[in-house]
Amino acid sequence: MNISSVAVSGEAPAPADAVRPMLYIQDLSKGFTLHAADRRVRGCEHISLSIAPGEFVGITGRSGSGKSTILKCIYRTNLPETGSIWYDSAAFGMVDLARLDERRVIYLRNYEIGYISQFLDCVPRTTAREIVEASAAEAFDDPRVIESETVRMLEHFDFPRELWDLYPNTFSGGEKLRLNIARAMVRRPRLLLLDEPTASLDNASKVKVRDLIEQLKEGGTTMLGIFHDLEFMEGVCDREYNMQAGEMR
C-alpha cells in the first residue's frame, strides 16, 4: 500500500530518557460532553508517558478512572482534545496520532497497531477461522503461513475444531474474548494495546494469554495494557502506573 508522507510526521520532542521511544504521549487530555444531560465527563487529563521499543507498560485503576480513554485516543477511536501522541511508525516515521489523517490511521491499524478489547466486533456471518485468517493475511503473504498461524492460534486457545467454522455469535463471552485476542496477536503488531484482555477468562486461559504476551515481547512488540488483575501483571510488565480520577500516578 503506497501512502505518501504526511505533514504531521517528524521528530517528537525528546523525552527525558535518551532512547528513541516507540510511543511518546505528551500532555494528553480527553473529556466527553453529554448533551442530553448537559454534563461534562472527565476522561483523562494531562497524561504524559514514554514507552521504549519492546517495553510492556501496564496501567491499573478503578473503573471509570480514564484508563480505556488513553488507549482509545492512541487507536483514534476517540479524538484527543489536547496533547500529542507520537508513534514511531515503520511506514511513516514519527507521526502524531492525535493529528494524523484518517487514511494513515486505517493503514496503521491494519499493519502496525493492534487493539484487544473486551468485546468481539466482526463482520456478520464470518466464522472463527475466517476471522483469524483475515487478520493473519494482513501480516503474512504466504498462504501456507497464514493457514499455519491461524491453526496455531486456534489450537493455542483450545478452540475445539468443531467450533472453527461456526459463527462466533454462538460463543460464550470467554470464547469471544479468546478469539479477539487470537485475532490481534496473530498479526504480531509493532504496537499492541490491551484493554482488560483477561477480564472474563478462566485461569487456564489467562496463562495462555500471558504466554503469548511473553512471546510477543521476545519478538519486539511494544505493549500498553490496562488491567484489574494485578497478579496477572506481576513479572510481565516492565513498568506500572495507576490511574485515579483521570490522572496518572
Give the fraction of residues assigned to helices: 25-40%
Beta-strand percentage range: 25-35%
- Strands of the largest sheet, in order across it? 6-7-8-3-9-10
Could you say which overall geometry the principal axes of the C-alpha atoms support?
globular
CATH architecture of the domain at 52-78 and 109-248: 3-Layer(aba) Sandwich
Give the helix tally: 8
CA radius of gyration: 18 Å
Output the CATH class name of the domain at 52-78 and 109-248: Alpha Beta
Query: Biggest sheet, open or closed, and with what strands and sense?
Result: 6 strands, mixed
Instruction: Provide the structure class.
Output: alpha/beta
Unreliable sequence segments: 1-7
Q: What's the number of extended β-strand segments?
A: 10
GO molecular function: ATP binding
Protein name: ATP-binding cassette domain-containing protein
Organism: Collinsella ihumii
Pfam families: ABC_tran (PF00005)
Description of the molecule:
- The protein has 249 residues and is α/β, with parallel strands linked by helices.
- It has a domain at 52-78 and 109-248: 3-Layer(aba) Sandwich (Rossmann fold).
- The chain contains 8 helices and 10 strands.
- It has helices at 67-75, 102-111, 128-137, 143-156, 161-164, 173-185, 203-218, 230-233, and strands at 23-34, 39-51, 56-61, 82-89, 93-96, 113-116, 191-195, 222-226, 239-244, 247-248.
- A 6-stranded mixed β-sheet has the order 6-7-8-3-9-10, sandwiched between helices.
- Helix 3 packs across helix 4 and helix 3 runs parallel beside helix 6.
- The chain is globular, with a radius of gyration of 18 Å.
- The termini are far apart.
- 39% of the residues are buried.
- The model is unreliable at 1-7 (pLDDT under 50).
